[in-house]
User: Fold this.
Amino acid sequence: MIESAVRERSDALVRTLLESVRIASVSLTGEGIADQVGFLKKRLEGWGFATEVHPTTSHPILYAEAGPKDAKFTWLLYGHYDVYPADEKQEGWRTKPFEPVVEGDRVWGRGTGDNKGQHLAMLNAIALYRELHGELPIRVKVILEGDEETGSVPLPKFIEENRARLGADLCCYSDGPMFPNDQPVLLMGVRGNLGLEFVAKGAKRNLHSGNFGGVAPNPTLDLIHLLAEMVDREGRLQVPGAGYAEVSVAPADLEAVRSLKVDHAGFVESVGVEPITGGDDALFHERLMLRPAFNVSGFAAGYTGAGQKTIIFKEALAKADVRLVGGQDPDKVFAAIRAFARDRGYHGIEIRNLKATPASRTALDHPMVALVKGAVEKGFGKEVLVVPSLGGTTPDFVFTRLLGLPSIVVPLAPYDENNHAPNESTKVSLYLAGIRSGMYLIEKLVSETKLVSGTHFR
Assistant:
């Protein structure tokens, strides 16, 4: 029934995604946020959800519930309706970011993969199951936020204030890319993220390098030297209290990544260069999932126009992000980086904390893994890999740390989704497979949860 139902409604299911993508809900600017909230509220209510719009200090959080209040199992579902800004002046766009285009199996447009196509697949799965059966056999609770791309700042407060009503047995949601060749995976955690800004200041005005070179401070060089001291040439953070080598990796996690293969040809085709880990597949996944990583995402200093200006510029700026793992505390890592700069005499460099999201993990052997894995394997018709972590970041910690729930992430976007960049895309086939997976998950939550833990999980 599930296969035929999704196949017969595929055009309408894809239209829902296209309608959402046409709304430019950019959290950084606020563009389209109200329209996207209205779109989702209308859809959720039409699908039988009791829906609330909660104002925050930034963008609204939608909260919705459906299914029997006395159900023996409760599924908490998360998604974010905001998208990353789309700079159409940036080279490489093949379509307009907010005018979605379907070409064969591809759907092009900002938000198709991150995250509209992913949360809408799960929501459509719930709605279609309810349509076919008249009522849900489980309780479903949904959180859709509008600030994920800017750090999910209001979300922890919402979770804390609504802790009692957010009780659930499982948090399962979709985000991030699948493995190459449309290989489905279950992600048992995420890396955290610490966003940093470095502002190096020197003289009160720009100086002529002939008159002042060698005697005046040079903030550009200071900033370059600090970054070089912090990180080695392979991107391994060398800061005491936050370093790459200081992270303790569990043997079970190392064993899990040893079994994962890297599609080297696919990586090179997608990225255009070889991975810095060479042919070591285990090290590739260990560094992507289980180790911290430091990235300089922007650097601005001096003159880069035609010809030359012999100027010592008074200021230099860098932006960076640190991917965190394990028990790394963002605040402690930030403090360690500031202490590192201070102890090495970089007194002219101010370091600012732009955002901080802790890492999050659920045990690889949690009883819910087999159940979710089975549902996704039926939905995709192929074997599913269980891996320790997403290389990127979601606010998963609010579910594992604040609510104490097991959390499993099921990516539905292709490996080359190109989120945050020109030509973001997803695939129709993956979107529909996600809908089937969500429906099979509901079936399994009803038929198999008694094998996991008895009547109630909480």
Summary: The domain at 2-190+359-453 is CATH 3.40.630.10 (Aminopeptidase). The chain has a mean pLDDT of 94. The two ends are 31 Å apart (CA to CA). Residues 428-447 form the longest helix (20 residues).
